[in-house]
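This part of the workshop introduces the protein records we will be handling. A record pairs a protein's sequence with a compact description of its fold. As an example, a complete record with its sequence and its structure tokens follows.

_____
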Amino acid sequence: MALAALMVLAVADVAAAASRENELKRVINRNTGFAHMTRGMNMYTLIALRSCVTDADLPVLRRLLFDRDYVTQLSAAGVLVDMGAGGRATLVSALPEATEYRARSTIQDALREADDPARRPLSAFPLDERERKRLRGCGAAAH
């Protein structure tokens, strides 16, 4: 009986993690910019995603570093940089597993940015009220 309960909890935990991962991917996709017919991450993407995450999401953001979508990788790395020591530690722990060039390069770039003394936090990025209303964070689809 205890084993069955443990298995149910493990399945529920995996499902919850997948659900959270999907939610964060939706935030990225809703806030992705397009320039010259090319989809890309911008400050709106990073600010919207950052508004949705806490330290509890570090494992989810770590998984997103290895997503097949490059914009997702870049967004996760950019937000991890903004999350201080916990985000930096997550990037460092992911680096040895980054065997694909693109993921490895993204993580290395993020670590350089995290160590840059001139880096400003995402919260310091100037947005006017109209721009803030454009951001579509977690749960924004329900509005």
Summary: Helices lie at 2-30, 43-50, 58-64, 70-82, 84-94, 101-114, 129-134. The CA atoms of residues 37 and 71 lie 14 Å apart. DSSP finds seven helices and two strands in the chain.
